[in-house]
Amino acid sequence: MKKNYILLFTLYTLCFTLSPYLYATGSVGELFRYGVSARALGMGKASLAVSDDVSSAYWNPANMSKAEYMELTAFNSVLFEGTQYSYIGYILPTTSRKALGVNMLRLANDGFEKRNKDNNDEVVSSFGVTEMGLGVSYGQAITKDVDIGSMLK
Questions:
Q1: Which residues are bridge partners to 86 per DSSP?
Q2: 96 versus 134: which is more confidently predicted?
Q3: Given pLDDT bands bounded at 50, 70 and 90, which one contains residue 90?
Q4: Residue 17 phi/psi, 5° resolution?
Q5: For 10-46, what is each residue's pLDDT tens digit?
Q6: Per-residue DSSP letters for the chain?
Q7: Range of lowest pLDDT (61-70, 85-94, 116-125)
């Protein structure tokens, strides 16, 4: 039993240690670095422990177990150079102190110009780039004070 806890702790530590390198700037998965909800972003993304609404499906799935009602939210932000960042999330309490959540993120930018390789002043066409992500979350209360949760992105 003790070996299982040591193995679990080691894997958990490795995940947190390696995660900044997995989502380095400009890589696939960049949209998961921004965060969701105006409340959380206004607090400098320091909402891990206090996310008690539908955004907990993204920030901390264990907190979804406190949900009493179905919740739906949408969030849109215009970032630099017309980049659009959008989020939609939904949680559904299934039974007492258990909940399922689904969320979708979208990072898109239109208006890039494709130019003629021989004559750089000539615009041939324009194009856009879009990245989307889907997350499925589950949260459950184990005891009165202990909740667990997981998210698959």
A1: 76, 106
A2: 134
A3: very high
A4: -70, -40
A5: 766 665 555 555 544 455 666 677 777 777 777 777 7
A6: -HHHHHHHHHHHHHHHHHHHHHT-TTSTTGGGGS---HHHHHTTT--TTT--STTHHHH-GGGGGG--S-EEEEEEEE-GGG-EEEEEEEEEE-STTEEEEEEEEEEEEEEEEEE-SS-TT-EEEEEEEEEEEEEEEEEEESSSS-EEEEEE-
A7: 116-125
**CA torsion, ordered 74, 77, 78, 79, to nearest 10 deg:** -140
Percent with pLDDT over 90 in the chain: 5
Q: Considering only CA atoms, which of 118, 106, 101, 33 is closest in space to residue 61?
A: 101
Of residues 86, 64, 82, 85, the one with CA closest to residue 74: 86
Centroid of chain to Cα 46? 14
